[in-house]
Amino acid sequence: MINEERVRELFHIAKYDSTEEKKNRQMGQFYRSDYIWKELIKSFICGSIAFALIVLLVIMYSVNDLIEEFGSFDLEHISVIFVILYLVFMIIYLIITYVIYYHRYTKGRKALKGLYEHVKKVNEMYDDEE
User: Fold this and answer.
1) Could you give the number of structural domains in the chain?
2) Distance between CA 75 and CA 45 in Å, rounded?
3) Which structural domain, as residue segments, surrounds residue 60?
4) pLDDT in tens, 20-78
5) Around Cβ 27, how many Cβ atoms within 10 Å?
6) Would you tell me how many other CB atoms lie within 10 Å of the CB of residue 121?
7) 55-74 as b/e: b if 16+ CB within 10 A
């Protein structure tokens, strides 16, 4: 005879495995701080590349103006401006990354806890049958 409650619980487990398992796998493997630091490091690398590309595009866009005023450049002033812009860009980018991955981790852990509850119920049902 089919136990309908067990089928419902197994359906929840199968639904989770097919839809959310790939997204939330890392939430079960890492502590919150490790997961967020891993994502911050990846974001630091990607953000640095993005900043370099943005600077390159701005330079390419204004290359005619730069060539005309090349003799009057104050390299110290320009380098300080670039460093300040880079730091501001990276701080904002890393704060956004932290907030996003903190919420993703929290949401993923809640989903995992829900999955574990379904698994516990199924195990209890099997234990009760034996």
Assistant:
1) 1
2) 26
3) 4-129
4) 666 667 777 788 889 899 999 999 999 999 999 999 998 888 887 777 777 677 778 88
5) 19
6) 17
7) eeeeeeeeeeeeeeeeeeee
